[in-house]
Design a protein that fits this description.
279 residues, mainly alpha, 14 helices
């Protein structure tokens, strides 16, 4: 049982649920009345690939996690690197194997995301900004994947773009939180190269562009007033708090709390999109 729990922690279940939920929201934003089989399969593909990518990320980051997150399954010794690698490959291969049920684009995007996230863990994470862009792109593609599952990818582009900006800012903030361990391991993340304060300004820029963009779908008549109310008070105000609070206090503990706040804010953003389409 202890090993099963370690495997679950390795996959980061909350991130898996967020990935599957993003696909579902992309499908619902495209006008789907209820989840059908292709959408459920798309959610499953996204969840499997995300879990596998999280596992392989821990394999490559075991030295960093010994400093930043010693309680994780690998640095704590509850799993070996070979066990984690086999688990990761199994999940990602299974996800890609299911994806042809969604058509050619479903297969191609699944393969692209797998390659992107493996490249992130192996190389891109240790390069300034490129790793952040890779994760943000994968997050945005989850919404587009939901639209592809319904045959109407166009409407899913709005939440996909919002997700890209949101995750870009959050990933930079997380790198700022982990800067000590990353620098010790020789990773050239954006905070390690330009410094934590400057990197947090980059994160603030991504969040500011997102805040400026969020009213547009309502103003052009695509999303309802309910969307605007939820997104302004439930997403934009917390993002403003994160921008200014991170500049005042950039300690790892505080940035960790802000990262958790942003994870909660993701769910509010998903609710805003659904309200915009269906309320």
């Amino acid at each position: 049982m202890r090993r099963v729990i370690a495997y679950l922690q390795l996959s980061r279940p909350l991130n898996v649920v967020i990935a599957a939920g993003s696909v579902l929201v992309g499908a619902l934003a495209s006008g789907l009345l209820r989840p059908d089989l292709p959408v459920l399969l798309a959610c499953l593909v996204a969840g499997l690939i995300t879990g596998g990518a999280n596992a392989i990320n821990d394999v490559f980051d075991v030295q960093i996690d010994r400093v930043n997150k010693p309680g994780r399954p690998l640095p704590s010794g509850r799993l070996t690197r070979s066990q984690a690698t086999a688990f990761s490959v199994m999940l990602m291969v299974l996800g890609v194997a299911i994806s042809p049920a969604l058509g050619l684009w479903g297969l191609l995007i699944a393969i692209l995301v797998v390659l992107l996230l493996v490249a992130y863990s192996a190389w891109l994470k240790r390069m300034p900004l490129w790793g952040n862009l890779a994760v943000a792109l994968a997050a945005g593609l989850a919404f587009l994947y939901g639209g592809i599952a319904t045959g109407r990818p166009g409407p899913a582009l709005v939440p996909a773009c919002f997700a890209f900006l949101f995750h870009l800012g959050r990933e930079i903030l997380k790198d700022a939180q982990d800067e000590v361990g990353d620098r010790a391991a020789g990773a050239r993340t954006l905070p390690a190269v330009v410094g934590v304060p400057a990197a947090l300004r980059w994160a603030g820029l991504a969040f500011s562009i997102l805040i400026a963009a969020t009213p547009i779908p309502h103003l052009v008549g695509h999303y309802s007033l309910a969307y605007l109310i939820i997104v302004v008070f439930g997403v934009d105000f917390p993002l403003l708090y994160v921008i200014f609070s991170s500049q005042r206090n950039s300690s790892p503990d505080h940035l960790g709390r802000l990262s958790l706040l942003l994870k909660v804010d993701m769910w509010v953003g998903l609710a805003a999109i659904l309200a915009g389409v269906w309320v």
